C-alpha cells in the first residue's frame, strides 16, 4: 500500500496519514499543539524554529519522493527534477539538524506537524501536487526565507542566516520547475486546470476547517507573519511567476500600494 | 566474449531499468522509514540513481536505440529485486541497498566493462565507471550515517548473505534480441 493512500481524520477533515517518524517526535495534528514563544528569538524559540523547519524540509523530501512513486509515467525530465528535489531537501534537513545541534538542540525537542504532506498527498494528479507543495507551500517558504535570514542576521547569527540563504536558492529552483511543468501539463491537457483549482480550493477549505473561530488560527497567524515579512518579489520572478501572478499575490497580501500604477485595481 | 552494438544497448537499457528500480525503491522508503538519518540517506541517493538512469538513457540513444531505452531484466532477477523492495524494517532496507543491491549492480557493471572495447565504447565506459565511483561513495555514506547512529540499528548479516546468494544465482539478466532495440533514428 502506497504511503499516500493511507488516511487520517483531523477535525472532521480527511487527510493523508502521517509519514513515518521516530518515537522521539511528538506529532501535532494542528497548530495549537505546536510550541510557541512570547520572545520569538529567545534561545529556545530559535531552536524551535530550526526544529520546525527541519521537519518541514523532511516533509518536502517525502512529498517529492512520493511523487516519484505515485507517478511513474510522468515525463522523465520532470522525474529528474523531483529526484533532484529529494536530494536538495535531504541536504536541507542535514544542514538544519547540524545547526540545531550546534545550538544545543536535539531531534524531538519540540512537537512537529506534517500538514503539507497530509494535504498535498490528497491530490491524485502530479500537476495538483506540484501546485500545492511547490507552487504554494514552497513559494510561501521562499517569501518567509527572504525575510527570516535578515532577522537571524539582525540577532548576530550569521551561520543560520547563511544556511537559510542556501536553502532559499534551492527552493527557487523547486518552485520554478513546478511553475514551468504545471504550465506545460495544463497546455497539453486542459482538464488539469480544474484539478489544480480543486486542489487549491481543498487547501483553503482545509485551512478554514482546521482553524474555525480562533482569534488568530494557524492560517491567519501564518498569513499575518507572512505579510509582515513581505512578498519576495525578486525571487518569485526567478521562480518564473509572471508579473500578473506576483501582482495578484501582492494584492492578496494587502500590498497594492507596491504595484506598478497601471496594475492597481 | 565481446558484445555487439545491439547487445550493448540492451545491456545498458537493463542497467537503466535497475537504476530506475533503485530510485523508485528508495523513494517508496523515504516516507515509510522512521529514522530521520536513514530517511535522509535514502532521499540523498535517489538523485544518484536518477542521474545514472539519465546518463544510461542518453547513451542508449547514441547506440542507435531509443532515448531512455529501458529493458526489464529476465523474470528471475526481477523476482529477486521485488523481494528486496518488499523489505519493511529499516536495518533490512539498509542491508538490501548497500550490502546487496549496490554490490550486485557493481558486478553487473564490471561485466559490461570486461566485455566492451575501451576505445570504441569509451562513452559507455565513462558512464559505467562513474556509477561504480558513486556506488563506492554511497556505501561510504551509509557507513558514516550508521556510525553516527552509534549502533542503534541491529543488522542480521545472515539475511544479507542469503539475499546476496539469491541475487548472484541469477547469472543472466539481460533480455537480448527482443527485436525492438534499434531505433528508427528518432528519440521516443
Question: What would you note in describing this structure?
Answer:
The complex is a heterodimer of chains A (about 260) and B (about 190). Chain A has about 260 residues and is mainly alpha-helical. Chain A has helices at about 45-70, 75-100, 115-120, 125-155, 160-190, 190-210, 220-230, 235-240, 245-250; strands spanning about 5-10, 15, 25-30, 110-115. Helix content of chain A is about 65%, strand content about 5%. In chain A, a hairpin with a 2-residue loop joins strand 1 (about 5-10) and strand 2 (about 15). Chain A is globular and about 50 Å long. The termini of chain A are far apart. Mean pLDDT of chain A is about 90; it is low at about 215-220. Chain B has about 190 residues and is mostly helical. Chain B is built from six helices and no strands. Classes of the chains: A mainly alpha (about 260), B mainly alpha (about 190). The interface of A and B includes residues 79 and 87 of A.
Amino acid at each position: 500500500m502506497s504511503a499516500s493512500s493511507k488516511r487520517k481524520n483531523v477535525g472532521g477533515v480527511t487527510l493523508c496519514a502521517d509519514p513515518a517518524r521516530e518515537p522521539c517526535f511528538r506529532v501535532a495534528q494542528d497548530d495549537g499543539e505546536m510550541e510557541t514563544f512570547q520572545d520569538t528569538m529567545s534561545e529556545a524559540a530559535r531552536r524551535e524554529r530550526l526544529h520546525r523547519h527541519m521537519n518541514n524540509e523532511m516533509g518536502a523530501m517525502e512529498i517529492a519522493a512520493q511523487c516519484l512513486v505515485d507517478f511513474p509515467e510522468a515525463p522523465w525530465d520532470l522525474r529528474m527534477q523531483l529526484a533532484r528535489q529529494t536530494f536538495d531537501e535531504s541536504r536541507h534537513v542535514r544542514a538544519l539538524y547540524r545547526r540545531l545541534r550546534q545550538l544545543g538542540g536535539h531531534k524531538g525537542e519540540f512537537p512537529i506537524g506534517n500538514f503539507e504532506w497530509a494535504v498535498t498527498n490528497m491530490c491524485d494528479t502530479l500537476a495538483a501536487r506540484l501546485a500545492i507543495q511547490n507552487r504554494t507551500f514552497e513559494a510561501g517558504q521562499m517569501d518567509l526565507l527572504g525575510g527570516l535570514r535578515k532577522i537571524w542576521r539582525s540577532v548576530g547569527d550569521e551561520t543560520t542566516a547563511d544556511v537559510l540563504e542556501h536553502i532559499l536558492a534551492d527552493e527557487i529552483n523547486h518552485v520554478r520547475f513546478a511553475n514551468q511543468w504545471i504550465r506545460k501539463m495544463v497546455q497539453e491537457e486542459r482538464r488539469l486546470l480544474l484539478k489544480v483549482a480543486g486542489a487549491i480550493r481543498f487547501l483553503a477549505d482545509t485551512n478554514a476547517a482546521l482553524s474555525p473561530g480562533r482569534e488568530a488560527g494557524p492560517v491567519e497567524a501564518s498569513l499575518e507573519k507572512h505579510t509582515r515579512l513581505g512578498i519576495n518579489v525578486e525571487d518569485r520572478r526567478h521562480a518564473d511567476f509572471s508579473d500578473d501572478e506576483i501582482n495578484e499575490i501582492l494584492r492578496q497580501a494587502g500590498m497594492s500600494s507596491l504595484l506598478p500604477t497601471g496594475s492597481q485595481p | 566474449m565481446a558484445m555487439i552494438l545491439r547487445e550493448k544497448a540492451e545491456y545498458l537499457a537493463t542497467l537503466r531499468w535497475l537504476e530506475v528500480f533503485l530510485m523508485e525503491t528508495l523513494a517508496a522508503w523515504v516516507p515509510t522509514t522512521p529514522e530521520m538519518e536513514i530517511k535522509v540517506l535514502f532521499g540523498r541517493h535517489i538523485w544518484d540513481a536518477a542521474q545514472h538512469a539519465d546518463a544510461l538513457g542518453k547513451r542508449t540513444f547514441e547506440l542507435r536505440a531509443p532515448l531512455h531505452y529501458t529493458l526489464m531484466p529476465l523474470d528471475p532477477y526481477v523476482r529477486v529485486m521485488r523481494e528486496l523492495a518488499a523489505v519493511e524494517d529499516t536495518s533490512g532496507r539498509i542491508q538490501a541497498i548497500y550490502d546487496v543491491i549496490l554490490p550486485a549492480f557493481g558486478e553487473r557493471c564490471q561485466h559490461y566493462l570486461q566485455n566492451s572495447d575501451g576505445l570504441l565504447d569509451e562513452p559507455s565506459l565513462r558512464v559505467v565507471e562513474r556509477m561504480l565511483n558513486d556506488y563506492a561513495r554511497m556505501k561510504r555514506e551509509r557507513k558514516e550515517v550508521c556510525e553516527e547512529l552509534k549502533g542503534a540499528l541491529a543488522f542480521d548479516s545472515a539475511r544479507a548473505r542469503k539475499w546476496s546468494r539469491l541475487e548472484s544465482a541469477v547469472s543472466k539478466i539481460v533480455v537480448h534480441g527482443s527485436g525492438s532495440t534499434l531505433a528508427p533514428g528518432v528519440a521516443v
